[in-house]
Amino acid sequence: MAKFKIIHQKELCIGCGACAAINPADWVMEGDKSHLVDSQKEKGENGEQEFRFIDDSKYKQNQEAADACPVPCIFVKKIE
Ligand code: SF4
To answer: Theoretical Cys-Cys bridge with 73: which of 4, 6, 12, 43, CB 3.0 to 4.6 Å?
Structure first.
């Protein structure tokens, strides 16, 4: 089973709500930005970012959220 890392470069998020509309199980709105549910925080190239590891079962809906992000600031990377 493939594993993926979702990265949310939260500093860049403009709070449009597209990710939460497409995938409300994993994305919620918090104030003027979205939040990746069950994520952790780390330092990234654009400031503090949220990340979470997922498997195939959550890939499609999170890639759709990433594709809909107008910035973009959501990335789904295959890690194995
Ligand atoms: S789609 Fe992108 S810009 Fe819009 S709320 Fe989600 S992460 Fe932020």
So the answer is: 12
